[in-house]
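pls design
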């Protein structure tokens, strides 16, 4: 798709802070190997060990002009297929997905990106499908949007969210109301130093029904061009850290750990992820 500088999609609201606080933290052992054939087919195999359980999958990505086909098979014999069509019309992306043998898993999604708006709508391939609509409007300084799902079988809204994001040169602040107004999440992302890609962020969530609050702080810093460190801590005393090293272009090894500072006697969680790409 031709890049359009605009507000993006609803999923982009608060994404910078979420990626900083949660992405790449791994409590298990994961290995990913990617290869690229001479005719341009990308093949990726991955395995993850969760305790005594080992789960693996293999996926194939084929690109032909503006059509990308992604087929993934896992150890439970499920076949996940996604077909993406870029630019069937200006600014539009069409995504078709289904999982075999689940006959009710089929879904079509249309995305439209504009300089001042971003819209995504999806529809399930069933007699009485769930319809999802999300949209944002704004510019490079502020965006506002909503995310709604409607179940035509029951006639009820299954999801009703709204969000707003304010953007400055080095700061992004977001506020989201989720779960039909039952929870609210505020977050911020701050670019401290572009030279070392040093960033800091926080997220605060309040549940109105449970009256529970969760506050998480995090930071990221590049020690050099190939090695970065991240850390986070929340108000429940859970502290996590990771070290990620790019030992060759696009190939990463990530070591992460988590400890409950209120129960040091418990064993810490250690995770390892290795990704090898061509």
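designed seq:
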């Amino acid at each position: 798709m031709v890049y359009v500088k605009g507000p993006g999609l609803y999923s982009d609201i608060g994404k910078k802070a979420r990626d900083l606080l949660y992405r790449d933290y791994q409590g298990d052992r994961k290995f990913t190997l990617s290869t690229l054939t001479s005719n341009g087919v990308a093949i990726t195999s991955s395995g993850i060990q969760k305790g005594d359980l080992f789960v693996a999958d293999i996926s194939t990505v084929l690109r032909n002009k503006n059509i990308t086909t992604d087929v993934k098979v896992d150890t439970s014999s499920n076949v996940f297929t996604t077909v993406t069509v870029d630019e069937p019309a200006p600014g539009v992306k069409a995504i078709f997905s289904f999982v075999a043998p689940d006959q009710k898993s089929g879904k079509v999604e249309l995305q439209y990106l504009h300089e001042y708006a971003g819209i995504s709508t999806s529809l399930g391939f069933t007699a009485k499908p769930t319809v999802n609509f999300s949209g944002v409007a704004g510019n490079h300084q502020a965006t506002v949007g909503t995310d709604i799902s409607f179940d035509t079988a029951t006639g009820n809204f299954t999801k009703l969210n709204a969000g707003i994001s304010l953007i400055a040169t080095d700061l992004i602040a977001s506020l989201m109301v989720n779960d039909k107004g039952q929870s609210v999440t505020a977050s911020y992302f701050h670019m401290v130093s572009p030279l070392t890609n040093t960033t800091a962020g926080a997220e605060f969530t309040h549940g109105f029904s449970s009256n529970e609050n969760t506050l998480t702080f995090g930071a990221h810093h590049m020690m050099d061009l190939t090695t970065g460190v991240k850390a986070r801590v929340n108000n429940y005393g859970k502290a996590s850290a990771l070290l990620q090293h790019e030992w060759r272009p696009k190939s990463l090894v990530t070591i992460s750990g988590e400890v409950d500072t209120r129960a040091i006697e418990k064993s810490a969680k250690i995770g390892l992820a290795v990704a090898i790409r061509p």
